[in-house]
Amino acid sequence: MSDKLANPAPLGLLGFGMTTVLLNLHNAGLLDAASLGMIFSMGIFYGGLAQIFAGMWEMKKGNTFGATAFTSYGLFWLSLVALKLFPVFGWTASASGMALVAYLAMWGLFTLFMTVGALNLNRALVVVLASLTVLFFLLALGDATGIGTVTTIAGYEGIFCGFSAIYLAIAEVLNEVYGRVVLPIGPKRKQ
């Protein structure tokens, strides 16, 4: 048996990507409120826990970037579900409009800095993180202004973001399985 650790990134990327697509189908108005239970379930288990596991496995591999990204975004999904469900159970008041704007803006800022870090990695990851940065700021703007069209636009942009993460995950799996580039992810930046 080999002590070689598997690449946990595809699991984390799929947890992020699939959950992001589903939530943003709702934001774009393509899924109704009845879909929220499914989205919250994905947010807890696949978007949340799977990414946290991937982050811990990235830590074991010595990948600070992957550990920080996956663990943080896994905890984002858990905190987002908590923000939406805690008031339903009477555990907290609903987050006010500006509180949610601040929450989304902080995640946008964090993601912007992660995008800068990804510039030294592959191009596909830069696309994922840059589009996620735009998504967070669009969602914050939509909540700040109350303009539903902004949230709808954010939904479509989020669908793109989620599918870009799914693409990267599948590319990493297929490229490893076949030992060659099946789906390109773009080279690392030259130093």
Describe it for me?
The protein is mostly helical. It has one domain (9-178). Helix content is 74%, strand content 0%. It has helices spanning 9-27, 36-60, 64-85, 97-118, 123-145, 148-178. Helix 1 (9-27) runs parallel beside helix 3 and helix 2 packs antiparallel against helix 3 (64-85). The chain is globular, with a radius of gyration of 17 Å. The termini are far apart.
Strand composition percent: under 5%
How many helices? 6
**Main sheet overview:** none
Radius of gyration: 17 Å
What is the domain tally?
A: 1
N- and C-termini, Cα separation: 36 Å
Low-confidence stretches: none
Question: What is the element layout, followed by pairings?
Answer:
Layout: H1 9-27, H2 36-60, H3 64-85, H4 97-118, H5 123-145, H6 148-178
Features:
globular; 191 residues; 6 helices; mainly alpha
Compact summary:
The chain has one domain (9-178). It has six helices and no strands.
